[in-house]
Amino acid sequence: MEERTRPTLKPCEQKRSKAAETVAHVDDRLSLLPDEILLKIWSHLATMKDAARASLASRKWKHMWLVHPLLNFEDKNLLQRVRTNYKKLIDKERSNFINRVDYIVEHHLGTVIDEFRVAFDLDHENHSHVDKWLDFAFAKQVKRLELVLKRAGSNSKRKPYDMKMPCNFGTVNFKSTLTSLRLESVNVTAEVIDSFLGSFPSLEVFSVRWIHSFTSITACSPLPLKHLEVCYCECLKLIDLCVPHLLSFTYEGLTYGGWPAKLHFRNASSLSAVSIGCFGSNCIAYAFDFLLIYCAQLQSVEVKCGLFKHTNLQINHCPMFRNVKHLTLNVIPDEDASILGWTPLIKACPVLEKLTLNLETPPPLECMPTRKMRKLDAHPLSCLKTLEIVGFLGYCVNRELVMFVIENADILDEMIVDARSPYLRKNSNVHTGFSFEDRCPDLESHKIAFDLLQMLSPSVKLTFIT
């Protein structure tokens, strides 16, 4: 039998393509740059993915992605794809996600990290991986930590991840460098929250969302917090804090059949921006008891709730907000919604410069019954310069507000009309399958908008977004 041998393969280096030579030439030129210039370029790479891609451009950068200080593990396109076919994709994509984060954590060579963010559909069954990631982040003296483990699909049996303090907490090796902590859809006890608030002297940002495992947030000693956000924590009954440095506070409660948490801030002399919401109830007046002692110092106020006819606020004696320059009304309108019930709040802001109306998830225009326009009481808006309406589809609630402003704002110089829903505007990279034409098939709001715009002074700058 004739003996056969394999042909000898020549090394690939002996025959380089023109493209490869060009890449090598560019690589040589980048490598010749001074280190300080390379580091300057590197510092502008915002994500781990950017760093990994840039590592291909220069020999000096080959392993620098392993020391990148910003570790952001979120892929919004992947999450959107999982939502469309949750049962089929979630197990595979969850495993791939965990493996990817594990690899980076195990190979990262940096001594410190500025940001560590994980956003994916993870639960208690993945606790060993998440525990390891958090221990890694704290060992690297993380400054900004964010854990967003919300579901990408429906799964009633899902048990949230139980968050604990890092394993080296309280030891001589533990360094409290944390400046920002954001938690969403995890289980965390009041004791752990107290430990975080009391053990991190540099913690300026604290946010908890969709957490149902604690009933209170309290602290007797002054805290360094500058920004506090508490949203959709249905078991929360009390927030009682001493916050002399607090600049902004956001609270949104789940009150379907319940009542919002009691809010008590001590020494909040720096508080300037407040956002209060309660979508489960048509009464938001409770918030003004909390705001009463701080209303004179506030510069920005946002109110979020359902908009039902004209009595939804139920505020008999609205306090004066003498320094509020930006007022945002974020509402879910019903079919007979009117802004009439909000005029006491608008009138209580004598130096108001910008008024924003956000209409959340309004029904299709063809489902809205026709009704007569209601006349709002005249009131001078002597400082108002900007009117912004997001979610404009031509409802009476839109037109009534525009008419009110046109008739009373003498120095109005800008009007922004945005037909997108506030959710789409905030998440512009998320495709829902609904365009402006889908939400308003007869384009009636186009005609309504342009009819209103004819009433504006020619000096008013107009922006119309669809």
From TrEMBL:
It comes from the Eukaryota. Residues 31-63 form the F-box domain. InterPro entries: At1g61320/At1g61330-like (IPR053772), F-box-like_dom_sf (IPR036047), F-box_dom (IPR001810), LRR_At1g61320_AtMIF1 (IPR055357), LRR_dom_sf (IPR032675). Pfam families: F-box-like, LRR_At1g61320_AtMIF1. Transmembrane segments: none annotated. Residues 104-429 form the At1g61320/AtMIF1 LRR domain. PANTHER family: FBD DOMAIN-CONTAINING PROTEIN (PTHR34145:SF68), OS02G0105600 PROTEIN (PTHR34145). This is F-box domain-containing protein. The lineage of its organism: Eukaryota, Viridiplantae, Streptophyta, Embryophyta, Tracheophyta.
